[in-house]
Design goal:
single chain, 63 residues
Length: 63
């Protein structure tokens, strides 16, 4: 994959063109939001969400 690689990302009936980097970021964001379970990766998603929640509450991150 090169930095100019583009992906079609379909979600909710809409199709988006994303760079590889933005595609991975979006997929990880959706995984963190919807995937549930036990183990270290799920703990990581919970930690990232907690950091984002604090940033949003402090006006440092806009979603």
């Amino acid at each position: 994959m090169t930095s100019s690689t583009k992906f079609l990302f379909a979600m909710g009936g809409e199709v988006f063109v994303r760079s590889a980097e933005r595609f991975v970021q979006r997929v990880e964001k959706e995984r963190g939001r919807y995937v549930r379970g036990d183990g270290p990766v799920f703990a990581l998603y919970e930690t990232v969400k907690a950091i984002e929640d604090v940033a949003i509450a402090g006006g440092r991150l806009h979603v």
